[in-house]
Every structure is written in C-alpha cells, then in structure tokens.
Design goal:
Largest sheet of chain B: 5 strands, parallel
Distance between the termini of chain A: 123 Å
Helix content of chain A: 55-70%
Radius of gyration of chain B: 21 Å
Strand order of the largest sheet of chain A: 8-9-15-14-13-16-17-18
Strand order of the largest sheet of chain B: 2-5-8-1-9
CATH architecture of the largest domain in chain B: 3-Layer(aba) Sandwich
Number of helices of chain A: 46
Number of strands of chain A: 18
Oligomer: heterodimer
CATH class of the largest domain in chain B: Alpha Beta
Largest interface: A-B, 41 and 35 residues
Strand content of chain B: 5-15%
C-alpha cells in the first residue's frame, strides 16, 4: 500500500519536478488544478492525469502552453465527465498536441464550455471534425482553432450532428480558401441562432455551393443571411430547398435566389405564398435557370396584374420553357415580346411609356408642335415650380402625365383617360392659354384690364407717398407668406423723386395677375375659367372624346368636397368648379350669395364657348374676382345653404339686356379703392404690409385656401408656363415680331417668383426654408431657361481663349495618319495640311449589343428587310438596246424594220439583257462620336453646350472624364446608343441589299488629333468583327467634322461604284477646341464643314446629313445649302428613319 | 345588230373642258396663269399630291376656252383663235421615253406609218400640254421639251427630220412634287428655270371645308371636321408621314360619309389606312379621328 502510496506520491512529485523545467505558468496551474482534483479523483487517475499533462508538455518545444491550458481546463472539465471519459478527453488533447500545440490549446480552452453541451462520447468526433481543418499550415491551424473556440456558441443552437455537417462544409470550403471558410464560420455563428431548424438545410445548400462554385459562398453567407432572417420560419425551408434543387441542376447564384425569393415572398400576401412557391417549383421543373428570374420579377409583375393573372402569365411561361431555357429566361425576365404581350393582355393598366409615342404623335397632330410627353414625376424633380408628382400639367412644350393609369377596369378606358388628359393639356397649347397678351382685346367682354391699376403700381405709389409724407424710411422687407409684395419699397422711399415707374413684367400673365390684391383667389378663378374655356373648345372641336371626357368629369365631381363644408368664399369657388364640370342639379350655394352664384354660373357658361379667347377668360376672371372679393369667407351652417334653381328656371327678365354680369365702372372703382366696398378698412391708410391682411378679415372670416385640384386638369401655372413657352418660341424663331427679348436676369425671376400666385402656397411654411426653396427653384428655372434659349447664357463660363491659328501646317509621318487642309472662310482660302486624321480600327467589344438590338426590334427588322427587298427587283433591271444580250427586243427589231422600210439606217442595238449590276452603290456612314452624344435622349433637345469645353488640356481632361463617368453609371439611353441601334438595324438590312458600305466614327480633340475609327471599311466583308466593333461605339471628345468628311470622301473616291453617298449622322453643330479665333468659331466650323461637303460632291459623292439637333435648322441651312439633310425631331425615330432615308436616297 | 356604245371616245386633241371644273383659288394663281398664257410662258406647278394641281389645269383650260376674261371689252379671246382650247394630259412614269411623247413609226400592211405622240399632237393642235409628275419621266424627255419652252416654241422630230413650230394656242404645263428626300429624282436646273412656278399647298381650313363640301356633297359640319382632320394630320408631315393628307383623300371620306358609312370608319379607310402603313402612326391618326368624330 505504502509503496503504491509512495509511488503515487512519487509520481506526483516527479511530475512536479519535471514540470519545473518548463516555464513557470505550467507548474503554477498544475498546482492549482492538483489541489482541487486530488480530493475528487482516485489517486491512480490523478496520477495518470498528471502524467498526461507532463507528456503534453514534453511533446514539442511549444507544447508547454498546451499543458498549461490542459491543467487550466481540467478542473472544470472534470466536473462534467466521469473519470474514464476525463482521461479520454486528456488523451485526445495529447494526440491533438502531436499535430499542433495550438490546436490543443484551443481544444483545452474551449472544452469547459463545450462540455456543457457536448455528450462525452462525442468528444473524439468533435476533436476530429475540428482537426480535419488542420493541414499543417498556419492558416489552417487558425481556422481549426477558431472552430474549437466557436464550438460552445455553435452548440447552443446546433445539434452535434448539425455541427458536424457545418464542420464538413468548412473543411470543403477551406480546401479552396481559408479566409472564406473563416468568414463563413463567423457568419454562421451569427446566422444560425436566427434560423434554428433550418441550419442543416442551409449548411447543406452551402456545401453544394462550395463544391460547385466556392466563391459564391461568400455572397451566400453575406447577403442571403439578412434575407433568410427576414423571411420568417414558414417559408425558409421550402425556399432553401428550392435553392438547393436549383443549384444542383446548375444555377449558380444561390444567394440571389434566396434574396429575391425572400423579398418576393414577403411582398406577396400571406395566403398566396404557397402558390407562389408552387409556381416557382413548376418553373424549376421545366427550366431551372429561369426560376430565379421569375422570383426576381414577381414584384414588378404584381404591380401590373393581380396574383391570379400572374398565374396565367406564369403558365404561358412554363409552356415557353418547354422549348428552350434561353427563351424561358427571356420570358421570365420580361424581355421577350411574347412575355410582355401576355402581360399586356392580362393587365388593364396602361403605362405611359407604352403609349407615349402614340400620345406624342397625337399631340403633334393636334397642335402642330413637337410636344414632349414625360412622366409627371420628372417635372416635380426638376424643381422649377411644379410640385405635384402625379397630376397632369404642361409648361407649354412638354406635357407631364402620370406614369401609369389604373383607374378603370379596361385598357380602353385607361387609355381614354390618357387621351382626356392630353386633349385637355394640349388644349392649353392649341387654344393659346400661354399666348395671353395683356393688350389684346377680348371677344366677349368690355376690356377692363387696361383700365385697372396694377397692384404693384398702387402699392409703390402709396409707399412712396407715405414715405414722402412721413419722412420715415420704410424698411425693406420680404414678406413670403402674405399676398403683399416686397416691391422696391426701399427704392421708392429713398428715391426722392416720387415718380413711380410702371413695373416691368417678364410675362403678360404676370402683368395681369398684378392687377389683383388677392392673387391666389385670382389665380384660382382664372384657372377655373380658363379650364372651362378649354373644355368648351374640346367639346366643340373634338366631340369624339366627349364620352370619355364626361366619364372623367363625373368621376371628378364625385371626388369634390362638400360645398357645405367650406366657408362661403371657397364654397362659391367650388360652385364654379362644379358648374364647369357639368353639374346641373343639386347645386348648393350659400343662401345669401345666390345672386353672386348666378352671375358666376353665367360667366362659366359665357366662357365655355369657341368664341372665347384667353383674354376673355382673363376678363371673366376680373369679373368673377370682383364678385367673390365681396364675399366674406366665413363658416356657415348647413341651413345657410340652399339649392340654386337650374338655369332654365332662372329669371331671365333683365339678363337679356344686361350683357355684363357686373358693372364695369363699379369694378374699376373697387380695384382703384383697394378696399372692400362693404366698408371695412375704407379710406384707412395701410400702416404696414403685414397688417393689410388682417384688415380684410372681419369676424369669423377664414383664410382663403385654394380648392382641391381637378385630376384631369392638373396643375395649371399660367405665369411660369408662359415664360417657358415664350423662351421656347424664341428659340424656334417663332416670335419674329415680338423682337428680341432681353436676357432674363436672376433678379427678374426672383421678382416674378415671389409675386406669382402659383408660388405662394409653397412659401407659407417657414420663411427660412421657403427662401431656400425659392432660390433653389430659381436656379433650376434659370437652367431650364438657358436650355430653351441658348442666347440667354450669362451664367455660363466664358468662351474658350485658345486659338491655334499660330501653329503651322502638320506633317503626317506615322502610318495611318493623314493630313487635310481646312477652309478659312474669312481668308477665303485653304490652310494647307491643317488637320491630322488618325485612323484606327475600332476595338472589339462583345457581339451581344448587336444581337440584342436585332432581337428587341424584330418587328422593325422585318419591316426594313421587306422594304429593302422591294429594292432588289429594281436591281434586276431589263436593259434594252444592247448590241448583244439574252434575246431580241421586239420593240427594237420593229423599229429597225421600220427604219429599213423607210430607208434610214437601222439601229443595231436590238438585244436586251437582265442586268444585275444595275445597282452600284457605295456608301459611307460617318458617325459623330462627340461627347455630347452621351446625353440622355430625353435631354436631346438641350442644345449641346460643350462649346464651353475648357481650354487648358488638364482641365479639359477633367471635364471630359466627368462627362464620361456620367456614361458609366447611366441607366438611360444616350444619343449614341440610338445611333448604334440605327446602324445595327441598317447594317443587318444592307447585307440583303448587297451595297458596298463602310461605317466610320469620328471625334477628336484639336486639329492635331482628329480621331477616325473604322468600324467597317468599305471594301471589308461583313464579319463577326463588325458587330463587336459596333458595340464599342461610345462618346468621345469634340466634333471636328471637316477632316473626317474629307477622309471619308477620300475613301469613297477609291471605291468602285457608280453612285457614292456619304451619310453623316450627327447630334449637333461641328465644334472643337481652338477652331479658329474666338467669336467666329461657330461660323468657321460651319463653313469648313460645308466646304468639305462641296469637295465631296466634286468627287461625285452625294452627301446627306441627318442630325438630331433640334437647333439644327438654323446652322444646317447654311452648312447644307444645296445639300440634302434632315433634322430629326425625335431622336428615338432614328433607327426607323435611317433605313427609310437610305432607301429613298439610293433608289 | 348594233351594240350600244357605252363609253365615250375621242381624239386627245379633241378634249375640251366644257363644264366648269370646281376650283377655289388660294391666291392669285388664276391671274398669274392667265398672264403667263397670254405671254406663252410655260408654267410649272409644284406641290404635294392632292393639292389641286390637275384640277387647276383643267379649270384654266376651261377658263381660257370660255374666254371668260376675253369677254371683257376690247380683249381678244385668250387662245388667239377664239376657239376652244384642248387639254392634253400625259401622266409621266419612269419608262416614259421621248418617242412616247413625240411619236413613232408603226408597221402596217403597206409599209410604215408615222403616228404622232401626244406632245406632237398638242403642239399641232395648239392646246395645253400637261405633263404630270415630270420628274418621273426619263431624262431624255426633259431635253426635247426645252425648245418648246423658250422663244423657239418648236418641236424637233429627228425621226422625221422635221421641226414643228407650235400652233399659237400651245402651252406647256408641267407639274412635280418636290420630295426633298430623293436626291436622285430632282428637276434639273436647266429645265426648271424655263418655267414660271406656281406653288400649291393645302388650302386653309375654311376653304378646304368648302371644297370638301362641294366635291363630296357631304354636309358642311362634316366637311369642316374633315378639313380639321386634314389640318391635324398634316402636322405629322416629316414626323412619321412623308406626305400630308391630301384634299382628295378627305373628299373621298366625305363621299363615303354621304353614302352612309359611319364617319370614323370612312376616315379610317380613306385617310388613316391610305396615308401610311406604319401601325403606330395609324394608331395616332386614329386617335385624332376618334377625337374629332364622335
């Protein structure tokens, strides 16, 4: 016993002694652990434990750390394990230590916690799972350690089996990348507690992904986690299974499936979710690759159709899927025409984008002007004074409409609504709402406008008068909220000569509204009357739309507020609106104002006729205003309202004689007096601007607020619209007699914006914010105006200073460079070798653009092909009167016989032959690749402003880059894209025709660097390279047309063809840096281009220019005099127009 | 058994416009034409299809025949001889050659026989020769008309080796439709500068309504709406339409309406479908039609 005791003691002692060789912590921890374990373990066990520790410490140089960890963990672990298992645990650690002491450290350290969740019999397995990650490298060891450390956390949510699977997955992934495996491990720790129950499924998916395409696991863990968590437990399992199934069949992007799937499932109402997944399964069964596309598109589809309708759409897709995966993917991406067609037929809603072209042409037909159609949201985003994003409106050149109409159950009716809106809005343009002229007399009324004093005038006069009298300087102030105007009180006060000048107005509309004190009321009244006038015209001229129009009006009436809920003044305005919308019965009006109501009704009737002009609406507004201003805006009880009798029952006795509803003289008095005839505030001199309002308001009077808009009439902003459309007309040269308008200054605009009644509603909230908003708006408006009138460019940076006149002629030394002269129109001579053309072959891109363009435009492609095929028979022309040929020509033979009979020498050319080579055409397309082609096509009417290209090369590059980078993040279509489309369609058809053709692009930067890109040379055969090169067509630098035209002409001259054409496609005038001296660049450029075209013509080439620049007409006239050209009004027509032109030109 | 002749047949130089063709002048074209005729200056009529060029020539032929102005005191009959003025119309096409205009030899049993072409017959008869759509004809035809258009007023027939001086009443009138898009088919300057040119365009709305009402017999409200439709559709020229809706087209619509075809349908078949094959443009025009006609 003692011996054994001794030996035990010895062992422990020996161990202690041995352990002393190791760094101190080992022994320290041994002692601590020993003290606790001695009592709890059998001696033998304790001995073995100690020896085990010693063995660990001895294993390698570094294994003392493991030993320390072992002793450290022992106490806690021992509590969890029976002694047999305890030693086994220790042994496992020892064997781990053989592999790597670090592993053992991690094993021991994480053991105490892990043992809480781990069954003792799994200890070995656990160690093995973790050890499997270790492959002798530092990274693998770190990963394995990490898994040991993470085990306690993981086991909180995972069963051991799940843990093993996760370990397996990590092992597979770690073969590829330890980093990714590490990330996955971390993400897993985070994710698994949130998706308990589905962990195994997910890990299984992850494992398959890791095997198939390991890089995707990062995304899977990264982005899918959030989606899965959000998804909720019910649909997690099916979705993961679905993803798994798809990944197995070869779909790569599991993360996207989970993400889109989760998003979609959450967007679908709960009771449809099962069906949604069934649908997806259905698709996956026939075409796995298209299922993800479906999951992604569902939310978009559901915006247009109901869930059930989507079912039909899906079923059709499944049928398509049986044909080919390609087709199915396109179908479910909503890219194939069949898919869109199906969706269209299911949905009754109409999207503006789909009918835009039709409506645009409809508007063009009705007005004779190119009217742009845009989504209303875009105008609101411009922030130039319109605020509503969903109401239709116009600013004189563009009609803004809701982007989708889903009011009715049929497509016809929804389209009808679009038509009603457009007819009403263009009515404003067609019937001249914005052509208001203050001095033109009205048709139906006596003119009062010119006899009324302007409010601004009165105010200024009064202020000046007062200032003079009191000798007090009035502080200038900006009143944002009220109706009062901060008109130069200061100026009037400080200027001692009290002569008041008539204020100048930007528009006649502004001048008109200046007549009123209560501008908002005036605007509202004018709006109702003007809209009634337009409706009157529509009714008379376009009876065809009236059925729909009436439907819309009835609906509008139904959504009007109750008259009795409104205070008296507003109730009367509402009454006017109701009359104008065609309500006849049940007309409630305040009892005391029945007479006023009758008069107002009469005004509406008078104005709703084709006799009425906008000036009549203005006169009517003055009258209505003078009636309404007398009405107190007080709240009334319901019993204070009474039905107004229908018009037929109206007592017409005196109406016949009295034409005008008001007495003009009284109105003038009323306006002059600036006070309410009821006596309040009569003769009272105003003390200050703010108090003015209160004085008008008596007891119980409410602030006047504008009525609710009528949906189809939308937002009507006469002042702004008149301003904008005036600018537009000036640009188009339509305002010949009005003469030149002075450039508008920012101050003038501010003045107008502050006074305009249309603006007031926005300014009432917080003065600071209001001011901010106004100034932003003014800035935007200035920009908008500049777009419309390029002359009004005072905010633009000065023109280029660079002149390269000083340089000398250039010499082309490098291969593929060519020099050309340039025409100096002032000197009337050429500058020899002035420009250097660098010819390059366009780099190869992807062939996709070409293919996709053809696929997307399949209808057009077929149409163009057909057109071109019609040309082909012309190519097989029967050529008569030949000396030799296929057969005798009967006519010629007869003639010869006749000649013989009458004794004249007969013609010997008696044969005819089908001549195939009749058509001999060579054409070169020259594409303008200037930076301005990067503009979005909707912006295309903006005159290209890269005239302001900086001159300094460094700045120029910056400028260029900023222009280009715009292109990178674009989602819109650029001019150059349309050019590409056009060329693609044409090339495709040209191959049918067999003409020789070349495609070239040009751009450049300065005269030394005219870049000339060959996309297809004239004598080059069409090959796969051509579509690839077309793909790379992109906006580059400036536009120096002359040298490019000369170079192209030189190429054409070499081609052997009877007819030669040079087809120039450009988006604007020629321009480049340093094109001659400052001030004449534009002219110089135009003249040189013209000269180069003349040269081409002298070489027997017919030039034709197609431009999409709306400002094109003016300079084109000079540039293309005697040449054919066309200015496309709408760039999007280019792909369609180009082949037509080509055909017309060459046949 | 004699069969009743159901058709009219006459020699081309015996064609006189006897009933007044309805023509509403847009400006002073009648006076200009009369002056030109008095001075025997050839006339070129330019303008898009269906704007009344042919009708105008017929009207003038009638007018000059009737010698309406000649009845005013002191004036002689316009065509000099005081006789009726024949109108010889040739519609030009791309295979029309010079001998189609001048004439040719034909074989007959005994030998050959010379047949005058329409131009020769007009020159001999002293009538108005109207070459419709002259640009369509082959280039050689334009050369033979040159001597007829200047002081020589003669036609050379090389086959016969003779030159014919035009009879006193002869006048050459040509028409063409300036389509600026076709670079290959344009009238040569050497030709066009031999004529006084009258430009034809669509009449203004009110006048067009009057013409439609007269020609189709439809009521004035329908005529006004048709005229409005024409006006609106012409706004689409160069924006998808190559030519605007001709007055002729609108008249056809009016006739169908008079026959009881519904207004919208009549416009569809005679205007919308006739004017373009482009479905989108058709749709847009349809929308205009359904706005104007209930």
């Amino acid at each position: 016993m003692t011996s054994s005791d001794d030996s035990t003691q010895n062992d422990i002692e020996t161990t202690r002694k041995e352990l002393k060789q190791f760094p101190a912590p080992v022994l320290e921890r041994y002692e601590v652990a020993l003290e606790k374990l001695e009592g709890r373990l059998a001696e033998e066990t304790c001995q073995q434990w100690a020896l085990e520790g010693l063995e660990i410490a001895r294993k390698t140089v570094r294994s003392w750390e493991a030993a320390a960890a072992f002793f450290d963990a022992s106490v806690a672990v021992q509590r969890q394990l029976p002694s047999g298992q305890f030693l086994k645990w220790a042994k496992t650690g020892t064997s781990l230590c053989e592999d790597s002491p670090s592993l053992a450290v991690a094993y021991f350290t994480s053991s105490p916690k892990a043992m809480l969740r781990l069954r003792p019999r799994y200890i070995d397995d656990w160690a093995n799972v973790c050890r499997a990650l270790y492959r002798g490298t530092w990274k693998s060891s770190a990963l394995a350690c990490r898994l040991f450390e993470a085990t306690p956390d993981l086991l909180e949510t995972l069963s051991f089996e799940e843990f093993c699977h996760f370990g397996e997955f990590l092992e597979i992934l770690s073969r590829r990348s330890y980093d990714q495996a590490g990330d996955a491990l971390n993400a897993g720790i985070d994710l698994f507690p949130k998706i308990t129950g589905d962990v195994d499924r997910f890990v299984n998916l992850a494992q398959i992904v890791a095997e198939k395409s390991w890089r995707d696991t990062a995304v899977l863990f990264d982005s899918a986690t959030a989606a899965l968590v959000e998804l909720g437990a019910t649909y997690r399992a099916p979705l993961i299974s679905l993803a798994r199934q798809l990944v197995i069949t070869g779909v790569s992007d599991a993360a996207a499936i989970l993400r889109d799937g989760a998003n979609t499932v959450n967007r679908v109402p709960a009771d449809n979710r099962d069906r949604l997944l069934e649908m997806t399964d259905g698709i996956a069964a026939v075409s796995a690759p298209s299922a993800p596309a479906f999951l992604k598109i569902v939310p978009d589809i559901l915006e247009r159709v109901t869930f059930d309708q989507m079912g039909q759409w899906q079923a059709e897709g499944v049928r398509t899927a049986r044909e080919s995966d390609e087709a199915a993917i396109r179908y479910f991406k909503l890219e194939s025409p069949a898919s869109q067609k199906m969706l269209d037929s299911l949905s009754s809603s109409i999207e503006l984008s789909r009918v835009r072209d039709v409506i645009q042409m409809y508007c063009l037909a009705l007005t004779g002007r190119t009217i742009d159609i845009q989504a209303a949201q875009q105008l609101a985003e411009k922030n130039i004074g319109w605020f509503q994003g969903e109401l239709p409106t116009t600013e004189g050149t563009t009609i803004y409409m809701p982007s989708v109409i889903n009011r009715y159950t049929t497509k016809e009716e929804n389209f009808g609504f679009f038509k009603v809106i457009s007819t009403h809005q263009i009515g404003h343009i067609e019937f001249g709402s914005f052509a208001f002229d203050f001095n033109t007399s009205s048709n139906l009324f006596d003119d009062l406008r010119s006899r009324l004093p302007g409010a601004t005038e009165l105010k200024a006069a009064k202020a000046a008068d007062e200032a003079a009298r009191k000798k007090v300087s009035v502080k200038p102030q900006v009143v944002v909220s009220g109706h009062e105007i901060p008109f130069d009180t200061q100026q009037a006060a400080s200027g001692q000569d009290t002569e008041v000048q008539a204020p100048e107005f930007l528009t006649d509309m502004s001048r008109f509204f200046d007549l009123f004190q209560e501008r908002r009321l005036a605007l509202d009244v004018f709006t109702v009357l003007e809209s009634s006038r337009i409706d009157g015209y529509v009714e008379e001229l376009y009876p065809g739309v009236m059925r729909m129009y009436d439907m819309v009006r009835v609906a509008a009436l139904e959504s009007r507020p109750d008259v009795t809920d409104l205070p008296a003044q507003e109730a009367l305005v509402e009454f006017m609106i109701r009359v104008s919308l065609g309500q006849v019965d049940d007309m409630l009006v305040p009892t005391v104002h029945k007479t006023a109501a009758r008069k107002l009704r009469k005004l509406i009737r008078q104005i709703s006729s084709v006799e009425a002009r906008v000036e009549d609406a203005a006169e009517a507004a003055i009258r209505a205003y003078s009636i309404l201003i007398d009405v107190k805006n007080e709240d009334l009880e319901d019993e204070d309202y009474e039905q107004l009798e229908p018009e037929e029952e109206e007592d017409n006795a005196d109406e016949g004689e009295e034409d005008d509803v008001v007495d003009p003289e009284e109105v003038i008095q009323q306006f002059m007096g600036m006070s309410s005839p009821e006596g309040e505030g009569e003769g009272e001199p105003e003390k200050g601007d703010e108090s003015g309002d209160q004085e008008f308001e008596g007891e119980g009077e409410e602030d006047y607020s504008s009525p609710q808009e009528v949906d189809y009439r939308g937002e009507f902003k006469p002042e702004l619209s008149q301003l904008l459309s005036q600018m537009q007309m000036m640009e188009n040269g339509e305002m010949s007699e009005g003469g030149e308008m002075e450039p508008i200054t920012q101050e003038q605009l501010e003045e107008m914006m502050k006074n305009a009644p249309e603006m007031e509603m926005e300014q009432t909230e917080g003065e600071e914010g209001g001011d901010q908003q106004v100034s932003e708006m003014i800035e935007n408006l200035m920009k908008e105006l500049q777009k419309r009138d390029p002359e009004n460019q005072q905010f633009q940076p000065g023109p280029s200073q660079h002149v390269d006149e000083d340089g000398g002629p250039l010499t082309a030394t490098d291969p593929d460079t060519f020099t050309y002269p340039e025409w100096d129109f002032r000197a009337n001579e050429y500058k020899a070798n002035w420009c250097m053309v660098h010819e390059k072959i366009m780099a190869d891109g992807e062939p996709d653009f070409f293919r996709e363009t053809l696929a997307e435009n399949s209808g057009l492609v077929a149409q163009i092909k057909r057109q071109f095929e019609l040309v082909i028979p012309e190519m097989y022309h029967k050529q008569k009167r030949l000396e030799d040929g296929e057969e005798y020509d009967l006519d010629s033979v007869l003639e010869a016989l006749i000649d013989l009979r009458i004794g004249v020498s007969p013609e010997e050319k008696l044969y005819w032959r089908r001549n195939k080579n009749e058509r001999s055409v060579a054409v070169a397309f020259l594409l303008d690749l200037s930076a301005s082609t990067a503009e979005a096509i909707d912006e295309a009417k903006k005159p290209s402003d890269d005239w302001g290209a900086p001159d300094d090369p460094v700045e120029y590059m910056v400028w260029l880059r900023s222009r280009r980078s715009e292109g990178l993040r674009r989602t819109y279509k650029r001019i150059v894209d349309v050019e590409k489309e056009g060329i693609t369609l044409l090339v495709n058809s040209l191959e049918t025709l067999g003409d020789m053709y070349g495609i070239y692009g040009f751009s450049g930067y300065g005269r030394e660097n005219v870049e000339f890109y060959t996309i297809k040379d004239i004598d080059e055969k069409f090959s796969d390279m051509v579509p690839r090169r077309i793909d790379r067509i992109a906006p580059l630098h400036a536009t120096r047309m002359g040298p490019a035209i000369r170079h192209t002409a030189a190429k054409l001259a070499e081609a052997e063809a009877r007819s030669k054409f040079l087809f120039l496609i450009s988006d604007g005038r020629p321009q480049d840096r340093g094109y001659s001296r400052e001030g004449v660049e534009k002219e110089y450029a135009v003249h040189d281009t013209r000269q180069s075209l003349i040269e081409a013509r002298d070489m027997g080439i017919t030039p034709f220019c197609l431009t999409v620049d709306k400002a094109g007409h003016d300079y084109m006239k000079t540039m293309m005099e005697d040449f054919s050209y066309e200015v496309l009004s709408d760039i999007s027509l280019l792909p369609k127009r180009l082949p037509q032109l080509y055909r017309n030109l060459t046949t | 058994m004699a069969t009743e002749q159901k058709y009219g047949e006459r020699n081309i130089e015996d064609y006189y416009v006897t009933d007044e063709p309805f023509y509403v002048p847009t400006s002073d074209e009648i006076e200009i034409f009369e002056s030109a005729y008095r001075q025997r200056v050839p006339v070129l009529l330019k303008g898009p299809t269906g704007t009344g060029k042919t009708r105008f020539v017929e009207h003038m032929a009638w007018r000059l025949s009737e010698g309406l102005t000649a009845r005013s005191p002191g004036a002689k009959a316009m065509n000099g001889a005081g006789e009726k003025l024949p109108l010889i119309t040739v519609a030009c096409h791309e295979d029309l050659t010079a001998s189609d205009l001048i004439g040719r030899y034909l074989l007959d049993a005994d030998g050959t026989r010379w047949i005058d072409g329409p131009l020769t017959r007009a020159v001999k008869a002293g009538g108005i020769c109207y070459l419709d759509e002259i640009v369509e004809a082959r280039k050689d035809t334009t050369v033979i008309i040159h001597p007829l258009t200047d002081h020589r007023r003669s036609l050379t027939i090389d086959k016969l080796g003779s030159t014919i001086d035009a009879a006193e009443g002869f006048l050459l009138v040509v028409s063409y439709n300036p389509g600026y898009q076709n670079a290959l088919k344009d009238l040569k300057h050497s030709t066009r500068q031999r004529f006084v040119a009258l430009e034809f365009d669509f009449p203004e709305e009110e006048r067009e309504a009057q013409i439609i009402a007269h020609e189709s017999g439809c009521d004035s409200d329908t005529a006004e709406r048709l005229a409005r439709l024409g006006l609106k559709i012409r706004n689409l020229r160069e924006h998808g339409l190559e030519e605007g809706a001709s007055t002729r087209m609108l008249i056809y619509a009016g006739r169908l309406i008079k026959e009881g075809v519904s207004q919208r349908r009549a416009c569809q078949v005679s205007v919308t479908w006739g004017i373009t094959d482009d479905p989108q443009v058709q749709r847009s025009i349809d929308e205009v039609v359904t706005s104007i006609f209930a």
